[in-house]
Amino acid sequence: MNNIIGNSFVLLSLMTSLTTSFLFFKKNYSHYLKTYIASCIFCFFSFIFLIYCFVISDFYVSAVYQNSHTTKPLIYKIAGSWGNHEGSMLLFICIVALYGFTFCYYSKNFDNKFKYLTVFFQNNLMTIFLIYLFFLSNPFDYVSSDPIQGLGLNPILQDPLLLIHPPFLYFGYIGFSLVLSLVLSGLINNSFDSVWAKLSKKWVIISWIFLTIGILLGSIWAYYELGWGGYWFWDPVENASLMPWILSVALIHSLLIMEKNNTFKSWTALLAISTFALSLFGTFLVRSGILNSVHTFANDPERGLFILGIIILIIFFSLAIYIIKSDFVEKKYNIMFLSKENFLVFNNLFLILFLVIVIIGTVYPIVLSAVANQNISVGPFYYNTILAPFVFIFLFLMGTGPLMKWYKNDFDAKKNLIISIGLISCILALIITYLSSETNIIYILGLIFSFYLIVATIFELFSSKNLLNFKQYLSKNLSHLGFGLLILSITLNSFFSKEYNFMINVNDKYVSDDLEITFEEFNISKEINFDQFSTIFEIKTSDKSFTLSPSIRKYNQPEQLTSEISIKNTLLKDFYLAINYSSIGNKRLIGARYYENFFILGIWISSLIIVLGGFARLFVRK
Amino acid sequence: MSTNTNKRIVIFLISIITFLIISKFLFSALRENTIYFFSPTEVSDLIELPNKKIRIGGMVKKDSISEENKKYNFIITDFNKEISVTYSGILPNLFVEGQGAVVEGNLISRKTFVGTKILAKHDENYMPKEVADSLKKIGNFKRK
Question: Domain range spanning residue B3?
Answer without folding.
Answer: 1-34
